[in-house]
Amino acid sequence: MEIHGIDHVELYVGDARQAAFYLGHAFGLQIHGQGGPETGLPDQRSLLLREDAVQIVLTSGLAADHPAAEYVRRHGDGVAVVGLEVDNASVAYTELLARGAEPVSEPVTYTDGRETTVVIAEVAGFGDVIHRLVERHGPRREFAPGAFQITEPAGGPDEKLLSEIDHLAICVPSGELEPTATFYEEVFGFSRIFEEYIEVAGQGMDSKVVQSPSKHVTFTLIEPDANRRPGQINDFLSWHAGAGVQHIALRTGNIVEAVSTLAGRGVNFLGTPSTYYQALPERVGEVETPIEELEELGILVDRDHWGQLLQIFTESMHVRRTLFLEIIERRGAMTFGSGNIKALYEAKERELAGADA
Hints:
Elements: E1 3-12, H1 16-27, E2 30-35, E3 44-51, E4 54-61, H2 67-75, E5 78-86, H3 89-98, E6 103-111, E7 117-124, E8 130-137, E9 149-150, E10 164-171, H4 177-186, E11 191-200, E12 203-211, E13 218-224, H5 232-240, E14 244-251, H6 255-264, H7 274-278, H8 280-284, H9 291-297, E15 300-303, E16 308-313, E17 324-331, H10 338-356
Parallel strand pairs: 1-4, 5-8, 10-13, 14-17
Antiparallel strand pairs: 1-5, 2-3, 2-9, 3-4, 6-7, 7-8, 10-14, 11-12, 12-13, 15-16, 16-17
């Protein structure tokens, strides 16, 4: 079984069209298709958004007992499905069940009767999130032939500010970090590539990063330290009602251009104090982009053995203040420097403190 990358993520949301308007206007994600009762998807409305290799499906329940409606009642808007690209969905499904995965749905084939065939199967992941195993043959313009009607985007050509999903950050309750990391190692064949304990202002969190052999699927797993003062990870778990995706990291080839464009469209990013940039040269060495420009935009910088990475985090756009987005540019960096998670933790603390003021 080979997992090549993240095929798509599906968010269950209260209003798919409203969420699509925001993601389209602010981030440039355009509607490329839709599904619903007219395409054999009863009691739901789904919209397919794309930008380059980023695929996000937004689904709302049209009936109170639809799984999307139930998910939103429990968790608020959030990631409910992580689609994984595989060579053979049936083989992957069988292998995962043999390794201990819990089945959700057996393989189903979608075809246009010509050159496109998509096979999909599903297994349980973490919390209420499931993994959709996706096998594709033919033009990638189609998503799930028959279930989704592909349309031409109304917003013009893809501007390619964002290129792919870099990683997902996942919060789990205290005591579940090690079992969750082990699950992805033993069942999905992932490897642990990074571990760290972070302490900030009397709060503590443990993190473990697991990654597929292809290196194109990366999950940052985070749990709060139950012996320290409750903090933002505890807040997420409370407001989200359990484990879930805290943020989606979207990769860009030019973070300065991307952040400038997104900020101009009204996207709010977490602020960073000027003292961070005063210490930056000593901490990470020379940075190609002028530090004054990074400070103006609030972009963070870190380093590992292979190079540097630049990143910034949006404020949550959800009423529960749970799911948010990260914009990241990798300049050779392959993993996560020790300052990354701590910088995120401290930035979120500032956002929460400001919101409570």
